[in-house]
Amino acid sequence: MARAPEFGYFLVPNADDPLLDIAREVERAGLGWVGIQDHPYQRRYVDTFALTSAVLTATSTLRVFPDVACVPLRPPAVLAKTAASLDMLSGGRFELGLGAGAFWDAIEGYGGQRRSPGAALGQLAEAVEVVRRIWSGERGLRFEGEYYHLRGVHSGPPPAHDIGVWLGALGPRALRQTGRLADGWVPSVDEDVLRRLPELNGRVDEGAADAGRDPSAVRRVFNVSGEITDGAGTGFLRGPVSRWADELATLVTDHRADLLVFAGPSMSGPQGGEARTQLRRFAEEVVPATRELLPSSP
């Protein structure tokens, strides 16, 4: 039996966009989530966590997560404190997406340290450990890693709920690490990733099984993008509502999507009106059509 999916919107933190108006529109349209990309070195973007706080304040039902936070530029103990505070202040509407880092020239230029792929994964694994310890409620926390340490610190205040740690990953080692450590997996699904989803899901499952975990405990959070049209389909997620519904329903039934996050065109410039139309069509047409194709929950 397929699980009932949830739906959200991928918010680009462009300072020129009416970001809080967009978030309110997402909520009014009935979507449940906003994912916000995190590129601190991008001069056109506001800070992801400052925007998250504003979105949580400006809405009453939306749940928000960084899609995904740049660990090389965000010390995990402070990040954990920020995450717990956002969750507490919003009544439990925050989840934490983390990534090992990309765009290393920009990361290094902004003060981060360039890492090899293997070292970046090791740093990410330690970050997950530090974050969870800071949320533990315990006192006198100690951790000595290669990249991070905790030396006699006290955790708190606690988050309002058990925050999920979701990892953005695609490589074989990163996927197995996701299965071993994380509560969720956050890929962006294009045609290439779609073809590889059975293999990629399998690697996450392998990591979970090796750690003695139930693979179904790792939530699948898929970023999806394309164009909703009234004409014939021209490719994956490019075509009419019926095609979108078929393809999203397949992501749920065949590839175990739990949350589908729609990334539409940019809200900036002359295409801003079309971007809002795409958002409304996704929420008002695609989501109901997708749900109609899925088996009812028992």
TrEMBL record:
Protein name, UniProt field: Luciferase-like monooxygenase
InterPro entries registered for this protein in UniProt: F420-G6PD/mer (IPR050564), Luciferase-like_dom (IPR011251), Luciferase-like_sf (IPR036661)
TM annotation in the entry: none
Domain Luciferase-like: 19-224
Keyword field: Monooxygenase, Oxidoreductase
Gene Ontology MF annotations: monooxygenase activity; oxidoreductase activity, acting on paired donors, with incorporation or reduction of molecular oxygen
Superkingdom in the source lineage: Bacteria
Organism: Haloactinopolyspora alba
CDD domains referenced in this protein's UniProt entry, alphabetically: Tetrahydromethanopterin_reductase
